[in-house]
């Protein structure tokens, strides 16, 4: 009888694991989607100020105006020089905010801030352009637009950048500010999910542990190499717990459609096809941080 019960238990666990693995992949509150903010990344902080000013400069109307400008040029039409000058000034303003933001990221001891930097760097490299090169290209493009508005000769491209590769990857949608182009702020889970005390307790524990980890991460820069690696291990554990929780919620049809749609919009803004692409990008950024931590150990 004991063996029979054990076989049934193993079979149930295997079946449950199979169901979890077959649940649709969703974005979870990790990485830039984490709702818990360190002091450096909180609303009203330095980072939020730079992002707000950058977002207000390269808002949807800016993207529409740039698309219209490119279409006019492709059709052989002469763009309005005044409008081109205005767009170039907005682009330079966004570039200035971007450079200031990247500078703060590089000097920060906060884990969330460094995670943003690593993700932005990996996203830029995946499009064939390094993070520093991306900034140079934006400034060069703005200066070319200003030269057109003045009727003067445009400047030469930045030295050392493969312009053929840049042109080949110009349609990927990644660039300055794309990580902040869309936000996921819809309620992810149906309230009925928490009618179960077990589920509610698990969720509250996960929220509590994740928030505590973010607070601890404010001192990440002061950790030695081993401490940084141990912290990244704890981040992996939290991510796995969220994956399991959301997979169970999905099987119970407790994930709200509005949340799923916002997730899809966010991934499109990043130029990613699905949540696996987002997780790959996040994993690459954490791998980059691990390499940095390993280097400190030597």
UniProtKB/TrEMBL annotation:
Keywords: Signal. It holds the Pfam family DUF1825. Residues 1-25 form the signal peptide. This is Uncharacterized protein.
């Amino acid at each position: 009888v004991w063996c029979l019960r054990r076989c049934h238990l193993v079979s149930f666990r295997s079946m449950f694991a199979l169901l979890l693995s077959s649940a649709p992949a969703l974005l979870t509150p990790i990485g830039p989607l984490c709702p818990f903010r360190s002091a450096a990344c909180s609303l009203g902080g330095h980072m939020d100020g730079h992002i707000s000013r950058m977002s207000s400069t390269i808002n949807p109307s800016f993207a529409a105006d740039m698309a219209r400008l490119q279409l006019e040029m492709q059709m052989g039409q002469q763009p309005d020089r005044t409008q081109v000058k205005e767009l170039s000034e907005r682009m330079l303003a966004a570039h200035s905010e971007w450079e200031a933001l990247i500078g703060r990221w590089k000097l920060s001891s906060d884990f969330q801030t460094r995670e943003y930097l690593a993700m932005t760097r990996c996203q830029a490299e995946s499009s064939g352009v390094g993070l520093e090169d991306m900034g140079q290209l934006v400034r060069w493009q703005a200066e070319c637009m200003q030269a057109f508005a003045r009727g003067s000769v445009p400047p030469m491209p930045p030295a050392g950048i493969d312009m053929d590769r840049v042109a080949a990857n110009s349609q990927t949608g990644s660039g300055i500010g794309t990580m902040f182009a869309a936000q996921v702020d819809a309620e992810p889970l149906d309230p009925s999910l928490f009618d179960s005390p077990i589920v509610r307790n698990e969720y509250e524990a996960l929220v509590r542990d994740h928030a505590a980890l973010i607070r601890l991460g404010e001192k990440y820069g002061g950790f030695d190499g081993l401490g940084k690696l141990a912290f990244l291990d704890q981040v992996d554990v939290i991510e796995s717990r969220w994956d399991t929780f959301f997979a169970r919620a999905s099987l119970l049809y407790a994930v709200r459609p509005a949340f799923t749609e916002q997730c899809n919009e966010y991934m499109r803004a990043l130029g990613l096809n699905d949540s696996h692409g987002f997780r790959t990008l996040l994993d690459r950024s954490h791998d980059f941080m691990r390499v940095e931590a390993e280097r400190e150990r030597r």
